[in-house]
Every structure is written in C-alpha cells, then in structure tokens.
Amino acid sequence: MKLKELADMLGAELTGPADVDIRGAAGVQEAREGQITFITGKNLIKDLERSQASAALVPLDTPALHLPLLRVNNPRLAFAQTLKLFYVKPYQATGISEKASVGANVAIGADPSIHPFVVLADDVKVGERVTLYPGVAIGRGSVVHDDSIIHANVSIGENIRIGKRVIIHAGTVIGSDGFGFVTDNGRHHKVPQIGGVIIEDDVEIGANCTIDRATLGNTVIKNGTKLDNQVHVAHNVTIGEHCLLAAQTGIAGSSTLGNYVVFGGRVGVADHISIGDRVMAGGGSGITRDVEAGQVVAGHLAMPLKDWLKMQSLLPKLPALKKRIDDLEKMLKELHSGKPEQ
Description:
Blueprint: H1 3-10, E1 13-15, E2 24-25, E3 35-38, H2 45-50, E4 55-59, E5 69-72, H3 75-87, E6 95-96, E7 101-102, E8 107-108, E9 113-114, E10 119-120, E11 125-126, E12 131-132, E13 137-138, E14 143-144, E15 149-150, E16 155-156, E17 160-162, E18 167-168, E19 173-176, E20 181-184, E21 187-190, E22 196-199, E23 204-205, E24 210-212, E25 218-221, E26 226-227, E27 232-233, E28 238-239, E29 244-245, E30 250-251, E31 256-257, E32 262-263, E33 268-269, E34 274-275, E35 280-281, E36 286-287, E37 296-297, H4 305-314, H5 318-337
Parallel strand pairs: 2-3, 3-4, 4-5, 6-9, 7-10, 8-11, 9-12, 10-13, 11-14, 12-15, 13-16, 14-17, 15-18, 16-19, 17-22, 18-23, 19-24, 22-25, 23-26, 24-27, 25-28, 26-29, 27-30, 28-31, 29-32, 30-33, 31-34, 32-35, 33-36, 35-37
Antiparallel strand pairs: 1-5, 20-21
C-alpha cells in the first residue's frame, strides 16, 4: 500500500512523500527498501539513520530525518498493528474435517475451522469462528467461546470455560488434576479434584503450560492476561486482569494475583499467597509472603531453613545496624585522632 494509506489506517502524522510503496515491515537493522520500521525513542535515531527502510514509525517529538516518518503516540503498538495488516491473513473458515471426532449433543457455532483429529466429547459447546488445530481434545461439557484459537495438541478437560478471543498455544493442558493429596500412615491418598477452570476473554496462554482444575470451585485467569511458555498455574489460583507472566513461572495452590501483575521468568509463588495489583517481580524471584499493591520485588537464595529464617528476621533491621556500624567507625576514628570529627 501507499504510505499515506498506512498513515490513515494508523492515525499517524505523515512527514515526507505520501506515495512511497510499502510492501512489508521489519526491524530497524533488517529493513530494506519497500519496508517500514520503527523506533521507540530519540536515543535510537542513529540506528534509524543507518537503516535502509523506506519509512519509519517514530514518537511524536522525533525531528525530521532523511526518510519519511509516521509520527504516533506509541510506535511499538503502531508497528504491531502494521504487522497485522501485512502478515496476518483475515479469518477464513475451513469447516469441520471429516477426520474430527464429534460426540453427542455437541453444539458448534457458525464458520468453524475444526481440523483433522480434533476430539470433541459429549456436550461440548464451540462458539462462532473458533479454530481448533489438529490433535485438540476437549472434554465433556466444556465451552470454547467465539473467535478463540486453540493450537495443536492442546488438551482441555471436562467442564472448562474458555472465553472469547482466547489463544492457547501447542501442547498446553488446561484442567489437569490439582496436586492434592492427604498423607496418612505413610501413604499419600489422592483428593479428588472436582472443580473447574475459567479462562476469561482475550487471554493468551503459551506453549506447554499447565493450568490445574480446582479442588472445589474454579481456577480463574481473568480478562486480558498473557502467559508465556511453560507456566504452571496450580489448583484454585486466581490471576487478575491484564497480568504478564514470563516463562517457567510457577504459582502454587490457592494463591491470588491482582490486576496488572508482571513476573519475570522463573518466578515462584508459594501457596496461599496474596499479591496486590501492579506488583512486579524480577526473574527468579521466590515469593513466600503476601506482597502489597505496587511493590517491586526480586531475589531468592536457597540455604538451610534455620539460616534463612535468621536472615529474614535480620533484613528489616539492616538500616539500623548499618547506622550503628557507621557510628562505631566514627567513634574509633575520633579515639585514634584524639579529637572529634567535624
């Protein structure tokens, strides 16, 4: 399309020729003639000056450069929208494959794309424009709502609720049994896991994640939350709206996350923990106590439990201890010099 067409679609302020042909998009270093790229700040202008791109998406306050510019409030978002325009094909229903297995009393909405070797158990409900890739298995009584995409070899257990516009990547398991056992006389006795899982609208779940069903009630992932690959969510966990959880995060049973929580990779949350809104945790953090809203936390170090407990009890006292040490050092200097320091 012409650059002016793209600017109009994005609501961008165009500086430069309007008739430049744009055939695709690429990163600032990889872009070539006919492609548009982006930068997120003035500190990257040098990279843009060396770029071979035909145009660039830039912040509103970017000065004029040698190539045409589309000035926008959020270049990263505008670039994502550009990628959709050029590379994401509009949805086209493929129908229901003859090689799919469809149980009794299954309801399927309009314009489905159900690929070979999909298994829908009895009483499953599938909304409109839902895509189920090969190997997807959906258990009895589960529901997948409109415009959701379930990638290959995803397993969805019984009585699971999947919202609208949900994306679930390959190999993920939703509705596996929670890790519940009672130990008696040296043996572990399984606690039946009879709850469900609710995945609300606009959630994206990465590849090879596991979301356990609740013991009683539901495990819940709320609107707009995004999970990276290999994230584990245990039974009866509730994750709030618009959270971002990076790879290999593990959340133990009955913990609750607020809205807009952000976790780096390999964050571990102990059971029955409450984490407030907009908490951020650095990669590898071990969260073993409640975290109030708005806090930024990091760090975890394994050691003998008694030592760890002693260290935890000392941490809040460190500022006072440091002041005492500074005062003692000052007193020693005074003794050696024979006069007080000014």
